[in-house]
């Protein structure tokens, strides 16, 4: 059931300006964590919205353009690798989501967050587990966060082609771990993540 059908029963306020919020990139060993916030336009619905992980890359790219064209407001934000290492990935994800909401040119009254916790924000927020496949606005945010992060990893691939970021997008695949061992840790790797931290420890000992 999509949020459009259940919003009144959940929140009992037809005047709410609702934004969906989601992040992408908690698991990878490299690159920033991205977040997006979207306020959909009921008069211009986008069909086919769902959890970005359940869509092909080509379909995500098409939907991302439709979302940007049809939404009342949308914004993307991120936290850098250094911020992730300093804050930890959970707090960095929360900060990226807050930044995305604060960048919206329309101020929402309610943020619906994918997951089981909400970032600290000056507006009301509700966490919805598996919201990226239940709530249209969160699905839209999921797609924008994922496509923005994938685009950033393609840019990192241009800078550091030896790691194969264009293929694994920074996730700890066998290929990525092999390239890490072969080429060492780059400036865009997350040093607080165990595979990277352990490799840095080995380099220090050597």
Topology:
Layout lengths: L2 H9 L6 E7 L8 E7 L17 H14 L2 E7 L1 H7 L1 H14 L7 E5 L9 E5 L7 H24 L5 H4 L5 H10 L10 H12 L1
Parallel strand pairs: 1-4, 4-5
Antiparallel strand pairs: 1-2, 2-3
Helix pairs in contact: 2-5, 3-4
Notable traits:
206 residues, alpha/beta, 5-stranded mixed sheet, 8 helices, globular, disordered N terminus
Main beta sheet: strand number and arrangement?
Answer: 5 strands, mixed
Portion of residues in beta strands equals: 15-25%
Number of helices: 8
The topology string of helices and strands comes to HEEHEHHEEHHHH
- Please tell me the overall pLDDT: 92
Q: Low-confidence parts lasting 5 or more residues at pLDDT below 50?
A: 1-12
Record the strand order, biggest sheet: 3-2-1-4-5
Extended strand count? 5
Quote the distance from N terminus to C terminus.
56 Å
How helix-rich are the residues, as a percent range? 40-55%
Query: Taking Cα atoms only, what radius of gyration do you get, to the nearest Å?
Result: 18 Å
Secondary-structure content class = alpha/beta
Shape: globular
